[in-house]
Amino acid sequence: MNPSPRELEQLVVDLARRACNASQRMSELSTRVKNDWLLRSAERLEAAKAGILAANARDLALAEKNGVSGPLLARLEISEAKWRDMIAGLRDVAALPDPIGRVESTIVRPNGLQVGRMRIPLGVIGIIYESRPNVTVDAAALCVKAGNSVILRGGSEAIEANLALADELRAAARETGVPEDAIAIIPLTDRAAIDVLLTQDAFVDLIIPRGGPGLIRKVTEESRIPVIKHDAGVCHLFIDASADPEMATAIAVDSKVSQMAVCNGLETMLVHRDACAVALPRIAKALFERGVEIRGCERTCEVVSEAIPAVESDWAEEYLAPVLAVRVVDDMDEAIDHIRRYGSDHTEVIVTQDYKNSQEFLRRVGSSTVGVNCSTAFADGFRLGLGAEIGISTSKIHHYGPMGLEGLTTLKFILRGDGQLRE
Amino acid sequence: MNPSPRELEQLVVDLARRACNASQRMSELSTRVKNDWLLRSAERLEAAKAGILAANARDLALAEKNGVSGPLLARLEISEAKWRDMIAGLRDVAALPDPIGRVESTIVRPNGLQVGRMRIPLGVIGIIYESRPNVTVDAAALCVKAGNSVILRGGSEAIEANLALADELRAAARETGVPEDAIAIIPLTDRAAIDVLLTQDAFVDLIIPRGGPGLIRKVTEESRIPVIKHDAGVCHLFIDASADPEMATAIAVDSKVSQMAVCNGLETMLVHRDACAVALPRIAKALFERGVEIRGCERTCEVVSEAIPAVESDWAEEYLAPVLAVRVVDDMDEAIDHIRRYGSDHTEVIVTQDYKNSQEFLRRVGSSTVGVNCSTAFADGFRLGLGAEIGISTSKIHHYGPMGLEGLTTLKFILRGDGQLRE
Question: Residue B1: what pLDDT?
Fold first, then answer.
């Protein structure tokens, strides 16, 4: 399919308009209908598995031919584990409580007026993503459960799998009474389709971009619709002077090695100068044994002989690979200054046994997830107990950090009176 | 002062950069310092009252000369009542609990990890407003109490009063240890200053426009920074079949007449056909007695002989004047369809004695404030018990409806562990 610019624009505007019209019915759907759709989608996907994996294989073959490399190819593949997670995800979202209609924190004013806040859907959510085809299913599941229409726009490299997945989601909608227009997928790989989508502020309430820095920058600069970024993770671990070396080693290895190609992976380790003698060599040894390259500041290289000297650009790098930048700092202030300067507002963790330092780090670091004595891997909607995750927001507006169902809703004020006047 | 385009750009960029640098210190200010600044500002403003009112008088004289009309001129004037409210507002905000650092809803995960969410400031907030000079003080008070830097850009018609007010706020900052750069005012009346501000996404986290539709549209279309609109209020009252005529009359009069030039004033009344015989004539009589003109649909004009036939544009009009559009509808569906089509997502109220209809209206109407049996005037941060109000958001993203201190903050995740790993 190779439409003219005008046909392309009409197609996208039409999808957006229909998604917007459907959003009013979506906001009034019962929980039962939404859950029926989730469970039916899981059944249909299972039944269509062979065809979907074949579509994914075609995407993978083309990507390899185009020279796509290791972690990126891994993101594109629907592995058996990812398939299981995707199907389980639909059933998990069905089991989550419906946020819509929930009334929070009702108070009674002195004049007897009851003031509450009720959760309602946002309306229409556009998801612009790259590579991972499972986002098609995960994102649609969360948007629909939260009563929204969704417009999906995956990467061109995953188009075959995305269309095959969306076909089943839309068929399940027809079968269960969910408006089919509420689950829209843009069937075009042309990037101009994104340009058109970003101007549909009359129909679309929120844009969530998930992908590389180029995509994020483009969307942020051009969108006339509010954007919640799911940006790079340049995550830091700060090994404080009082850190237990054994715990510090386990956390560093877990944060760096257990998953490489994810945004909550560790990219830079900051080490208090008083942790250089014992903790740093021990951590470095454990990382080397697992094949991690260390790019260190001058002081790091003095202690760790195998380290490669870091250059300025290493401090801002999201490697997504077995490489770790390491810098020795004099104190907490220097660590926090480094994080503010080079970090991406994603996830930072301190390893410490000092009460005051733990409090100070939690309070002063402004990133979306800030931790004490745990792996950076916990910056994840599932591991934090949200039950699901649409992504990890590095935008402070609306929702900051791992974002589940609630982030896809808003609150309206509801007033119950018996004739109250301004007077 | 008449700077070149380049000087203007440098001035605005410099203000924004300095506000951003100051925002890190702002986020760590103690509650005591922020409250000292609020109370000192109140004292300084009281001491400088004569000069500020003289500046306001100069603004008013120029506006009258330029032919500015009734309600707009009323917004520009710092009346004695507004002055008292402004000063009291500073003291009220000082008395409010500090939202920053508050940890909400900590849970413990099965692995022992404690997961909480801590309120933090947004960073730098740009307020673009028109006419009302008291916004200078109200907005700065709320932004600073919530730990943010603020960049104020008032209307050219209020420039003298705005600069005089901001002088005192900045002097109070110097006296109390609040970074002066955190309270920035753009001293230029040139609209090009807004264009520059809206591109400073490297330094500014949120833009709040408060003003007429022209300003709102310009800001929404051009901003590269997230925007929370404080847009027009085309507020509706729906008189249900079961409405008590006396209560309906009192609520209609209060919603329309008690304040005309405000966004929560009533602009369109929808009347169930079964309320036409008794309630409608009674309400119409009470409104006529108070000088309100009624522009009615055909069925309204049959019942209310003094009504003027409404034209299509009346249904979307924010009159801010003694005019009310009135339409008779067959049922709740027609009322809700009308609100969705012509409303502005601001405030809608039903008057009813019917339980089911009250629930349905609260649930189905998606506006930012939805009420039963009360005046539309309650769409107001003070009257709802928020303690203060930066405005009334008609954007669903981040905060919807009357917005107090909490709307100027966000939540980060904080994790407290003792060595938890992904495993």
Answer: 57
CB contact under 8 A, A250 and B419: yes
CATH of A235-378, one of 1.20.1250.20, 3.40.309.10, 3.90.550.10, 3.40.50.2300: 3.40.309.10
Do residues B292 and B284 make contact, with C-beta atoms less than 8 angstroms apart?
no
Distance between CA atoms of residues A98 and A315, nearest Å: 42
**Residue B30 structure tokens:** 């103690």
Alpha helices in A100-212 (DSSP H): 134-145, 159-176, 192-197
Assign A1 a pLDDT band (cuts: 50, 70, 90): low
Q: Round to the nearest angstrom and report the end-to-end CA distance of chain B.
A: 64
A260 CB-near residues (< 8 Å, 6+ apart)? A71, A320, A321, A322
DSSP E strands in B141-265: the ranges are 149-153, 183-185, 206-210, 235-239
Distances (CA, A) of A78 to A86, A158, A164, A260: 9, 10, 13, 17
Q: What is the ipTM of this complex?
A: 0.93
The enclosing H or E element of B49 equals helix B49-65
Beta partners for residue A348, in sequence order: A236, A370
Give the CA radius of gyration of chain A.
24
Closest partner residue to A385 (CB to CB) among B109, B206, B416 is B109
Ranges of each domain in chain A = 5-231+394-415, 235-378
Would you call B366 and A27 a contact, using CB atoms and an 8 Å cutoff? yes
Distance from CA of A158 to the nearest CA of B (A): 29
Calculate what percentage of chain A has a pLDDT beyond 90.
87
Angle A180-A186-A192 from CA coordinates, rounded to 5°: 150
- Using CA atoms, how far apart are residues B402 and B246, in angstroms rounded to an integer? 28
How far A276 CA lies from chain B's nearest CA (Å)? 20
Query: How many other β-carbons are positioned within 10 Å of the β-carbon of residue A363?
Result: 16
Contact B374 A417 (CB under 8 A): yes
* φ, ψ of residue B66 in degrees (nearest 5): -85, 5
Q: Which two tokens stand for residue A417?
A: 């009176």
Q: What is the pLDDT along chain B (423 residues), one digit of tens a residue?
A: 578 999 999 999 999 999 999 999 999 999 999 999 999 999 999 999 999 999 999 999 999 999 988 878 888 999 999 999 999 999 999 999 999 999 988 999 999 999 999 999 999 999 999 888 999 999 999 999 999 999 999 999 999 999 999 999 999 999 999 999 999 999 988 889 999 999 999 999 999 998 888 888 899 888 999 999 887 889 999 999 999 999 999 999 999 998 887 889 999 999 999 999 999 999 999 999 999 999 999 999 999 999 999 999 999 999 989 999 999 999 999 999 999 999 999 999 999 999 999 999 999 999 999 999 999 999 999 899 888 889 899 999 999 999 999 999 999 999 999 999 997
- Environment class of residue A201 by beta-carbon count within 10 Å: exposed (0-12), middle (13-18) or buried (19+)? middle
Q: Mark which residues 160-219 of B lie under 8 Å from A by CB.
A: 201, 205-206
Q: Distance (Å, rounded) from C-alpha B20 to C-alpha B123? A: 7
The domain made up of B5-231+394-415 has a fold known as Aldehyde Dehydrogenase; Chain A, domain 1 (3.40.605)
pTM score, whole prediction: 0.93
Distance between CA atoms of B232 and B265, rounded to whole angstroms?
A: 10
Q: Say how many C-beta atoms besides its own lie within 10 A of residue A415's C-beta.
A: 25
Q: How far apart are CA A297 and CA A309, in angstroms?
A: 6
In Å, what is the CA distance from A30 to each residue of A33, A144, A177, A209, A390?
Answer: 5, 11, 10, 29, 22
- Put simply, the answer to whether A412 touches B419 (Cβ < 8 Å) is no
Contact A187, A46 (CB under 8 A): no
